[in-house]
Amino acid sequence: MKYDLGTGEEKNWIVAESSFSSNLLGKAEAIMSLGNGYMGLRSAAEEPYVGEVRNLFVAGTFNKSDVMEVSELPNAADVTRMNIYIDGERLDASVRTEDYVRALNLKTAELRRSFIWTTSAGKQVALKFRRFVSLDNLHVIGMQMELEALSDDVHVSVESGVNAQVSNSGAQHFFEGEKRIYDKKYVEMVARTKESLIDFMFHTVHHVTLAGSKLNDPFMRMDRRLIMLSYKGTLAKGQKFSLEKLTTVHTSRDKAFDGLTLKEMRDRALSTLKKCAAKGYEGLFAQHVQAWEQKVWKQYKLNIESEDVFDLLAARFALYHLTIMTPAHDERMGIAAKGLSGEGYQGHSFWDTEMFILPFFIYSNPEVARSLLIYRYLGLEGARKKARSNGYEGAMYPWEAAWPSDGEMAQEWGRVDIVTGKQTKIWTGFIEQHITADVAFAVWQYYKVTGDQAFMDDYGYEIIFDTARFWGSRLEWDEDRGQYCINDVIGPDEYKEHVDNNAFTNYFAHFNMQLAIKYYSRLKESDSAVFHRLNEALDLDQAMEAWMECIDKIYLPQPGEDLVIPQDDTYLTKRIIDLTKYKNQTHVNTIFEDYSLEQLSDIQVSKQADLMILFYWLEDKFTHDVKIANYNYYEPKTIHDSSLSLSTHAILANDLGDRQLAYRLFRQACEIDLGPEMKSSDLGMHTASIGGIWQVIVMGFAGMRMLHGELRMDPKLPEHWSKLEFMINWQGQRLEAEITKDRLVIEAMDRVPVELEVYGKEYRFNDVLTINLAEAKGERD
Ligand code: BGC
């Protein structure tokens, strides 16, 4: 991959590859994927290649391909494929290709590809492709292709249309619906998901010219789930064949289609396509670029001045993917662990959203954060179902969520165990329970940062109370300890299954219950309608009695003599092995070539940040020395096999004062998707890691945190950064910050007073605050 191809206006905006590589197909498809949160389109080339994955996903359109399967996002029709023939020979960029460049421009969210191709008979053509998925009209995909003959008498044939002969790795999700062509040019394909009965409507239109003249009446090929139109002609040297293709994607889940019949939806979708056709690629593209400028680059205003161009590019790459992965338009949908860029994790939402991605939205776009939390509110239905079926009270959030009403959607069987030869049971859906407290924590964070009381009244309190009710019923009394324990769980470190008292889980459950106690007391005192409604629905008076009886007796693992906190009851008693080989691995999961998951449970080896994430989010519960001791104990045993690990370690390293290490880990976190490892992103983007990149920059290097409802900044820029600019929303007001080596300048855009702590000192300002960092630091030290 190349990150330095952008020059002039495009500097630090281009993610590219500069030669065709069949090894990099999957990675390029995912990291250069296009989208707008409504849909996601993997950037497979127009002409097909062996090993490619051609995905188009529409957020929130879950379906079960079979009763035995979990809900997953179906791979919708393929609208980008083109069968291109030059003199009867199929175009194949893997041979006889020069000047190949495929580039994603992050600023304009446009994918471009160009190269020169020579046929086996020696004729040459120059090809250029462009593509975007509109952020202005979420239903629109625009494509352009231009072929110039560099030799005389070049016969060109291009077949393009809608191909619904697709699946999710073989799993079929659709009934074939009606196919039509209107006015010999508007192609329509309708399909319905088999179980969830969602109607998908694809419409497409082509505008083709040959040597400047319009080509009409293409040859039409129809097959099962397929309509293709083919355009043909012969070019003299220097002449061009141009094809513009506009496609719209709609489904019966679209809010605008509520209550409409299929016929009405089809008509509306078709009329949208016709309007798009009138604007053409360039017109639509201009509106799309404008939307990116306003909604993303101006809104988020993130800038890094660094000696290394990669840093700013990585930050922009994160903002780009945070935008395209997030269904900001519809609160009935969550963010998938792979976004809309691949089949991995089947489109399900994990704690990745609340702990890794949501902080970005809470601080940068609270409206979207609110929408994502409402998705969890709607998910109370599934969470209550899961609690009931496991014999608990309240709301037990699914480890993997799809439809809000589904409950648990994690699969039960996973990889084959190298030792037994049998499939490994996946326990996460049963016992990785910290997700329930993570959701409550996220609600609290959103509330404290935004002050959105209406959200709390309508949704937030209910989540906090019902999750606390779950924990109340989940705690187990331990006679020996004389305390309440949480036994048989998986903590964030998934290499330790069936452990008792995972520290992260216990502290977070405790935090969740403490919140419930606090808010119960406050609401009861207010004697408000909200209190009475919730008390009646959730029997809070009784729940409160149970919480009060437990809260001070919950076992919270404490540091030992060496200050190390046991990650769980048995971690520290397990054997220690030499992990050098796995710590130096170039790709993840190599440890499974030598050990089974069961064996890993008996070794002091961690998949990912566990205690570190606890130190990050509940920082004031632990001393600096405890954090250092635990970092030094656990990091060497952590092989970062999850993409969620590095960003947390980077933030912690910064908190603990090791700037160089922090930057090194930040860089590694960015390289999870942007690095040289060829296969890492095949199944899709690592969305939590992408959210983590933003967090390392703002929560790490700028040292921004909300602590006890107070805003804090402790900047610690990497040595080679001369400036960092970013914005946050704080209590409904936009703040714009600029940090240089010696200064912090922060502006309250609405001129509303703000309190801010910097290096331990309180400041209050309502316009522009300038702080000399060296002085401020000197005073503290
Ligand atoms: C990680 C989890 C994460 C999931 C989805 C797993 O490999 O261990 O923490 O939630 O991937 O990204």
Instruction: Compute the average pLDDT.
Output: 96
- Helix/strand-derived category reads alpha+beta
End-to-end CA span: 44 Å
**Extended strand count:** 31
| CATH architecture name of the domain at 8-261 | Distorted Sandwich
Q: Output the number of helix runs.
A: 20
Helix content: 25-40%
Percent strand: 15-25%
Spatial shape: globular
State the CATH class of the domain at 8-261.
Mainly Beta
Q: How is the biggest beta sheet arranged?
A: 10 strands, antiparallel
The Cα radius of gyration reads 27 Å
Assigned CATH superfamily of the domain at 8-261: Glycoside hydrolase, family 65, N-terminal domain
If you consult CATH, what is the topology of the domain at 8-261? Beta-galactosidase, Chain A, domain 5
Show unreliable segments: none
What does this structure look like?
With 781 residues, this protein is an alpha+beta fold. It has a domain at 8-261: Glycoside hydrolase, family 65, N-terminal domain (Beta-galactosidase, Chain A, domain 5, Distorted Sandwich), CATH 2.70.98.40. Strands 1, 7, 8, 9, 10, 12, 13, 14, 15 and 18 form a ten-stranded antiparallel β-sheet that branches. The two termini are 44 Å apart. Residues 337, 345, 350-352, 492, 494, 607-608, 642, 644, 688 line the site of beta-D-glucopyranose. Beta-D-glucopyranose binds next to helix 4.
